[in-house]
Amino acid sequence: MSNNNQEYNANQIQILEGLEAVRKRPGMYIGSTSSRGLHHLVYEIVDNAVDEALAGFCDTILVQMNADNSITVEDNGRGIPVDIQEKAGKSALEVVFTILHAGGKFGGGGYKVSGGLHGVGASVVNALSTWLEVEIYREGNVYHQRYERGKVTRPVEITGTCKKSKTGTKVTFLPDDTIFEETVYDYDILKQRLRETAFLTKNLKIVLRDDREEKKEKTFHYEGGIRQFVEYLNKSKTALYEKVVYCEGTKDKVYVEVAFQHNDSFTESTYTFVNNVITPEGGTHLSGFKNALTKTFNDYARRNKLLKENEQNLSGDDIREGLTAIVSIKIEDPQFEGQTKQKLGNSEARGAVDTVVSEQVTYFLEQNPTIAKIICDKAILAQRARAAARKARDLTRRKTALESMALPGKLADCSDKNPENCEIYIVEGDSAGGSAKSARSRSTQAILPLRGKILNVEKASLDRIFGNAEIKAMITAFGTGIHEEFDISKLRYHKIIIMTDADVDGAHISTLLLTFMYRFMPDLIKQGHVYLAQPPLFKVEKNKKVWYAYSDVELDNILKEIGRDNNNKIQRYKGLGEMDAEQLWETTMDPEKRILKRVMMDEEMESEVDVTFTTLMGDKVEPRREFIEANAEYVKNLDI
Ligand code: 28F
Question: Which protein residues are within 6 Å of ligand 1, measured from CB?
Answer without folding.
Answer: 45, 48-49, 52, 73-75, 77-78, 80-81, 92, 95-96, 118-119, 169, 171
